[in-house]
Amino acid sequence: MILKELQLHNFRNYDDLSVKFASGVNILIGENAQGKTNLLEAVYVLALTRSHRTANDRELINWQSHEARLSGRIEKQGGTVPLELTFTAKGKKAKVNHLEQARLSQYVGQLNVILFAPEDLSIVKGAPAMRRHFMDLEFGQMSNKYLYDSGQYRSILKQRNQYLKQLQTRQQHDRVFLQVLSDQLAAYGAEIIVARATFLKKLEKWAQVVHDTVSQHKEKLTFRYVTQVQLEDNASVDDIYHQLLELYATNETKEIEQGSTQYGPQRDDLRFLINEKNVQTYGSQGQQRTTALSVKLAEIDLMKEQTGEYPILLLDDVLSELDDERQTHLLTAIQDKVQTFLTTTSLSGIAQQLIHAPTIFNIDHGTLSKEEP
Ligand SMILES: Nc1ncnc2c1ncn2[C@@H]1O[C@H](COP(=O)(O)OP(=O)(O)OP(=O)(O)O)[C@@H](O)[C@H]1O
């Protein structure tokens, strides 16, 4: 899939921008605070309807304005698809093929992106929330159902936590309503757990291929999905649902005391192992970085397997963080396959010989100029 064109209107520090991109590697060069990350963010937002940097959409709108508009034209095997997003103080509207979508989950998935920023290098050693966020982002793009189920789960979880607190302070007495919420939560939770397990198996398979090459056949990378339920191979949604219900029933008093839900996918984690040893605790910094790189590259392959199209890769200032060997692996893996946008303040430190005919854009105070070859 290729993002052929992008138009921005009052998005961050861009007043009006209209740009055509190359199908290979697009390098965005500029000094600090000129709008490089804002442009990558625009592509990310166009794909996912929300930013990776802020949960507050208002920040995306130019300070001088009340409305931001992003539109783009993507080219896929099935043809060209125009996308449009409008942000105002009241909310956002999403259009595919000029038709407004009733639900954002219907919009997401048209344009698939993978973002790789320096903080992703800490996916192995960072907090569990980071790995859950990673799973939700990636799997949500590949499956509308996953996206929908996790949205429902989040809202029921919030209600249930509020209700547990109310039971704690005796504002509420009705435990039957708690059971209704537990039932709904277990139903969506089971869907999420089974989907995560299924996607992780597939992702692991691709990550093993990449890691085997990067480690020159010395290391075997495996994933371990850490969840509170018993997860046998091919576990059914129904089985997990009953296990969760059982956990809620047995721990009702404890959960009321704590005033929060203690069981479910919001407590999951993901462990990476190299030759059976946990990379988080035993891996060198180099192995942790290589694992992160293998996982990122595996996402590209998995996305292709699931959707039939390669996603777009957004590299936010990450190449300078990778040594020559890892840069080589990354750039060779994507060469001539994946449309890539990379930001940098300087070309030095980037293995340019591995980038086939890049298109270079200079960014200066929210304006773009293409460097002629
Ligand atoms: N809503 C907004 N309206 C107008 N300008 C904004 C808005 N949000 C951010 N900016 C401006 O955008 C600029 C930051 O741009 P960006 O984050 O893309 O920097 P960058 O080029 O990636 O720099 P660095 O290399 O330091 O990361 C800042 O000058 C900031 O003041």
UniProtKB/TrEMBL annotation:
Where does the protein end up?
Cytoplasm
**Biological process GO terms, please?**
DNA replication; DNA synthesis involved in DNA repair; double-strand break repair; SOS response
Membrane-crossing ranges are none
Annotated residues that bind ATP are located at 30-37
The cross-references to InterPro entries, in alphabetical order and at most eight, read: DNA-binding_RecF, DNA-binding_RecF_CS, P-loop_NTPase, RecF/RecN/SMC_N, RecF_2
Which of UniProt's keywords are assigned here? Answer: ATP-binding, Cytoplasm, DNA damage, DNA repair, DNA replication, DNA-binding, Nucleotide-binding, SOS response
Superkingdom assignment: Bacteria
Q: Which residues form the RecF/RecN/SMC N-terminal domain?
A: 3-345
Picking any one GO molecular function of the record gives: single-stranded DNA binding
Q: Which GO terms describe its cellular component?
A: cytoplasm
Name the principal localization, coarsely classed.
cytoplasm
The family database entries (NCBIfam families) matched by this protein are listed as: recf (TIGR00611)
- What protein family does this chain belong to? Belongs to the RecF family.
Q: What does this protein do?
A: The RecF protein is involved in DNA metabolism; it is required for DNA replication and normal SOS inducibility. RecF binds preferentially to single-stranded, linear DNA. It also seems to bind ATP.
Instruction: Fetch the PANTHER family from UniProt.
Output: DNA REPLICATION AND REPAIR PROTEIN RECF (PTHR32182)
Output this protein's name.
DNA replication and repair protein RecF
